[in-house]
Structures are given as structure tokens and as C-alpha cells.
Amino acid sequence: MSAVLRSPCWAKRGYTVEASTGRAENKEYLKDLGASHILSRDDVYDGRLRPLASGRWAGVVDPVGGEQLASILGQLHYEGAVAVSGLTGGAKVPTQVYPFILRGNSLIGIDSVNCPMEKRKKVWHRMANDLKIKEVFNLIKVVHTLEEVPETLETILQGKTRGRSIVKLRE
Known about the structure:
Shape: globular
CATH class of the largest domain: Alpha Beta
Largest sheet: 3 strands, mixed
Order of helices and strands: EHEHEHEHEHEHHEHE
Radius of gyration: 17 Å
Strand order of the largest sheet: 1-2-3
Number of helices: 8
């Protein structure tokens, strides 16, 4: 699942939010998270790479990478940005410099592994207070017991989950 300004906090701030998914059963879930339009994967990347296409988005959050990311880069408006957080579509991004030098676009990496704790605390504080996404977090989390971990991991590996899985260690 990828997103174009997916976060509900963007919708609350007046942005039009679009989300992309390859699973039709996720459409209502994504609307509940704040998306006003749901796109198929083919709407984002139809298999053809164009260095520049019509500008569609001001900002994108992309957890996929690969050719989809290259396609998105070519579809950004002037001074648009893509925040990339994953590489399920591959680590190689077959793109050209045109989106960067002709439109002033930016590619921003999201680091959740080596990010310093002080910065994490600031982000968590902002999410909790400024963006008020607690109700959204409640929509995307599933809490499991420690005993359920093997079954949950199998479900994750089969691609049958969405959101966040949280393991509760004690009552």
C-alpha cells in the first residue's frame, strides 16, 4: 500500500488526500484514515516510466520504492517532494534528473532505525499534541498477546495484515 499524503492529519489541514492500494478491500479503511480518493496501483504506476509527466501531486509518502517511486517522481508538481520509507518495490530507482532540475523536486528519506531519541521524542510529541493522531493510531493498531506472535508473524509474511501489530507483554 502506498500513499499520496495519506496521513489524516493532512486532510485535517485542508489538503486533498489520495491513497493507493492493490487490495480493493482496503478502500473503506483508507477513507476512514482520511483519504478522499482511492487510486489503484496502476493509477500511480502503469508500467511505463516517463521522466516527466503531468504534475499530479504536491507531496507523496511512498513506502514502495523501485519503479513506482520513479513514476511518482515524474508526476510531482513544481517544488514537490516524496518522502520514501521503504523498498518493497526494489532498491533501484530507475529515474532521471529531470524532476529535480526542471521542477525543483525533492526526494526525502525517512530514517526510523538510526534516528536519535531526542528527535523521536519531538516527533512523538508533535504527533500526540499538534497533529492529534491518537484516534488514527487506534484505527491502525492491532494488539496481540505474546502467545499469538507465531501466528501473527505468519499472517504478516503472507501479506494479510495492515496497520501496526503491537505485542502486549503483560496484562
